[in-house]
Every structure is written in structure tokens, then in C-alpha cells.
Amino acid sequence: MKPEAVLEKYFGYSNFRGQQDKVIEHVLQGHHALVIMPTGMGKSLCYQVPALLQDGLTVVISPLIALMKDQVDGLVKRGVDAASINSSLGRREREKRYAAVRDGKYRLLYVTPERFRKPEFVDIIASRRIDLLAVDEAHCISEWGHDFRPDYTRLGEFRKLLASPPTVALTATATPEVQQDIVRQLGLQAGEMRLFHEGINRPNLHLEVADVWGEDEKLEHIVRICKQHNRNGIVYFSLIKTLNGFSELLRKAKIPHLRYHGDLERDQRKSVQTRFMQENDTLVLATNAFGMGIDKENIRFVVHAETPGSMESYYQEIGRAGRDGRDSTCALLYDEQDLLIQMEFIKWSNPDAEFYERVYQILSNAGDTINSHDMEWLKEQLHYKNRRDYRTETVLSMLDRYGVTEGELEKKNLRLLTDLPAQLQDQDFLDAKLERQQKKLYSLVQYTKCDGDRKAFIHQYFGLPYPG
């Protein structure tokens, strides 16, 4: 069967888009590829189609359990033998899938990089012939990227465990530094991995930046854009509190809308997403948690009501507009006061080495009794009362990412596994991480002040020639 036949049989498309066919041909010839494609351009087909044309197993490494669930559910509906193995599974189901892998089942297997910490998984996966390794959200490999995950730095080691199969790394955004880091972290040389860059030029997206002061001016812009485009779009907020405030203002203005944020129950979030995907002329107010699995072609506008934290996240979010090729508005409402929010986010997401040590010692000293306590108790031991200080949450998240702990304090199953890693005790390393995030925010501010072509600014940031 040829790639075009697989595309039509399983995915219902008659033609490939952009460079998809070139990537697929390159991978099927046994070569490595770094694929950079805007959100919605179909990056996943670049490994899903080859997986269905080969006899062995394709292993897909993805950072997010919810994202892999969406992809696997979609593949299974299309008749593809695919599965995921992650921490959301109960023991019985996990062992059942392990057995299926050992017995030669599945064409695609989705896992998080943390799964390679499990010796039983390593033993089982080593027994299979791996035809292709796909690394989704590959920017997570790089400390220069916008969502660094420590286990991604072990991908070179994972590749060797899998007998060094052809590898395709995929992401929507990557600066030149991140591109180089991806290749290096995979244990490859620059010439071994061909770059397929789809570019970031979207002629149908009209970029606007409006200098505003206060919620009244923001509301005026949001209402105007909503009416101009029949409410068919997304308004992004940084804070749930601000989102809820604007929800009330829009309700008074008689503009129907949905809300999506992390304080909603999972079923509520799923319901909102389903309604947005299925209904026309639907407005949703959302935090940046909204976007995964959003593949609606006719989104007519994306408004950032508060300043995002980086060019990467901004570009990824505006990329959800106008996937049908029709004119769409991407408006950023810039209020200098909003910078304080992002500066506070940066502060709370970058605890110093002393704070990491203090949290680690409290967990260590508590021993088996730690799960008889909660987050408030832990914060009390750290002697601070600021409710908006989220350094403790950051530390627990980073300890989990580095494999120092497993489980969650809220679920009463937190367990300390190993010592505090050297990086989290290295103040120079932590200072460099802080500085990188500050520079990303500064680049976003420069973008808002740009008097010239904003698309040219974005191309320059990502190290790409601008077609004009």
C-alpha cells in the first residue's frame, strides 16, 4: 500500500498538505527528520502514516497524557491498532497492555518519557522491533524551549534502548537554538537529521496589537471583534479571576459565551470543548489550558485579553485561527499592568536553590507521615502566608519531573524516591533558567511595540526568512 492509499483509507484525505509527503518518504527510507509545522497542519500524520506502512512498532513519546488519549481514541475509531501506557491506568489495565506489547500487538504505542523509568516497561519494549521513534512536542527536549521536561533529555539513551531506530521529532515552534538542542539531545549529529520547516507564514491571519488601559477598553475591543465575527472565536486570559470577571461583563452585554479553565471539573471542561467544536458562532473565554485537541477549522478570531508569557505560546495560540484559509483576526490587547501578572508567574515558577532544599528536607523528614498532611500544611512548614505564592506547587511539579517523587500530595500517595538532583541545587543553573524566561517575556513586549511588519518580527524571532 502506498502512503496516499493509507491517508485516504484511515484518515479520509485524498491529498497530503505542505511537506507531509516529503517527510513520510524520508522517514520510510530510514532517515531522521526534524519537523516544524504550525499547529493544525497535521504533524502527527508524518509518523502515523509510516507506522501503518511498516510491520514493526512505532513508539510515540508525548509529554501530555490527555493529548495522547485524544490521539489514540481518534486512531482506534479509524480502525488503527494503537494504545497508550501512562500513569492514568490502573495496575490491571497497565499489565494487560504490557502483555499486549510483549505479544506483538499495536502499530503505534504512545508513552510519556517518564515511562522509561519503569524497568518492566524497558524490558518489554526492548523485546519488540521498533521501526520508528516519534517525539511529539520535541521542544520539551531543550532547556531553551518553553516547556522543558528533564526526562526528554534522556531520549538519546532511549533511542539506544530501542536499537537506534529512525527518529522523527515534531514541534510547532522552535528557535534555531532549540532546533540544535533537539538534534544534540537525541544523540545525533546536525547532518544526520534533515529539517523540514513548514514556515510560520499564515497570510490569512491579520495581526493586531491594541494599547489599552483597564477593563473598559478591553471590553470594548472584545465586544467589537465578537460582533464583527459572529462570536466565532477564543478570548484568552492569564488569570481565572479575570476570565470570570469578563464573563460577567459579557453576560451583561448579552453576548453568549462558554468558559474553560482549570477550576472546572473535568466533565465540565470536556462538555465546553465538545460544544465549541460542534457548534457554530460559539465564543469561549479560556485560559491557556484550552487548545489541546482543538482542531476547528473556522475559528475566525483569537484575542489575547492579557499578555501571554512568550512568543512561542502566543504564536501557538493564534495558530488556532483560520485553519480553513479564510481571513481571521488575531488581536493582542496590551495593558502594561498585565506584565505584572507574567512577572509574578515567572517569579513563582523559578524558586531558588534554598527553597528547593527546604521543601525536600520537609518531605524527607516527614517520611511515611507526609500523606497525612496537605498542601496548606506544607506551606505552613515553609513559613509563608501569601496565597498567591505558588513556589511550593512548582517545586512539587519539578520533583515529579525529575523523578525525585512519584504520586501526588492531594491524592495522599506522594512518595520520595531519590535525592535532590544537582541541577535543582545549582543556583547558577536556576538563575540561567529564570533569565531565559525573562528574555522570552521581553521579546513579547518588543513585539507589542513593533512599528513595522509584525509577521516579519515573528519570523526573525524564530530565525526564518520572511517571504514578505
Commentary on this structure:
The protein is of the alpha/beta class and 468 residues long. The protein folds into 3 domains: 3-197, P-loop containing nucleotide triphosphate hydrolases (Rossmann fold, 3-Layer(aba) Sandwich), CATH 3.40.50.300; 205-342, 3-Layer(aba) Sandwich (Rossmann fold), CATH 3.40.50.300; 353-426. The protein contains 18 helices and 15 strands. The strands form 3 sheets. Strands 3-4-2-5-6-1-7 form a 7-stranded parallel β-sheet, sandwiched between helices. A 6-stranded parallel β-sheet has the order 8-13-12-9-11-10, with helices on both faces. The protein starts with a helix and ends in a 7-residue tail after the last helix. The mean pLDDT is 90.
Quick structural overview:
Strand 5 (130-135), helix 7 and strand 6 form a beta-alpha-beta unit. Strands 3-4-2-5-6-1-7 form a 7-stranded parallel beta sheet, with helices on both faces. Strands 8-13-12-9-11-10 form a 6-stranded parallel beta sheet, sandwiched between helices.
